[in-house]
Design goal:
about 240 residues, Rossmann fold, six-stranded mixed sheet, four-stranded antiparallel sheet, about 35% helix, globular
């Protein structure tokens, strides 16, 4: 059974249909990437899963449970966390405070402290800067903080929205190494990413979203050589 299942998902902004009947699954242990042009509905889909947007029609199921009507905090409690596009760290709060706030649905103080220590082990630069305001960090450091903050809720499914956006190539490689390491530790990941080739190289399966609809899907390695995807998204 799929860990995440979207069935006939439809989302509108007023009269504009942003997502039009999307069917998508993510199995436990996978990295699944969602690619498409700007405005295709990728971030809208992630925000709907997090329940930050109203679903007009369709269902979102997580671990067999329909979560379509849950509140955003209930979705986090169920085991889903999102690292949003643009990072959206709390600029006037310290790195440490941002991590603490990532665990807002939890009450196990000792375990929270252990997880903060684990985040600092995973992201050593954050420990070096733990007392700095998050807004003073570099773009790459803010992205690391956004991912670490999401992990503080101990999610089973991590939603990553454009983790490479605005980052230098070497930092992007660091971020994707971290993504692979998290997946190896058992975190299932649904990834929206502008760098389609890199995302597909680091994922198990790929969905292609065009104008709010899925047009292609399959194993990432196979789609990397698909002529339609190659010419449309990979510069082939």
């Amino acid at each position: 059974m799929a860990l995440l299942e979207l069935e006939n998902l439809r989302i509108s902004y007023g009269s504009i249909q942003a997502v039009r009947g999307v069917d998508l699954t993510v199995d436990s242990g996978e990295i699944v990437t969602l690619i498409g042009a700007n405005g295709a509905g990728k971030s809208t889909t992630l925000r709907a899963i997090s329940r930050l947007l109203k679903v007009r029609e369709g269902h979102i199921r997580f671990d067999g449970r329909d979560i379509t009507a849950l509140s955003p905090d209930a979705v986090v409690r169920s085991g889903i966390a999102q690292s949003p596009e643009g990072r959206q760290v709390l600029a006037l709060q310290s790195v440490q405070d941002n991590l603490e706030l990532g665990a807002y649905v939890r009450h196990d103080r000792a375990a929270i402290n252990e997880d903060i220590a684990r985040m600092y082990a995973l992201f050593p630069r954050l420990e070096e800067r733990k007392n700095q305001y998050a807004g003073t960090l570099s773009g790459g450091e803010q992205q690391m903080l956004a991912i670490a903050r999401a992990l503080m809720s101990r999610p089973r499914l991590l939603l990553l929205d454009e983790p490479s956006l605005g980052l230098a190539p070497l930092i992007v490689l660091d971020i994707f190494s971290i993504i692979r390491a998290l997946n190896a530790e058992g975190v299932t990941i649904l990834l929206v990413e502008q760098n389609a080739r890199l995302a597909m190289q680091h994922s198990h399966r790929t969905y292609v979203l065009e104008a709010g609809q899925i047009t292609f899907s399959g194993r990432s390695q196979e789609l990397l050589s698909d002529e339609r995807v190659l010419h449309a998204y990979l510069g082939g």
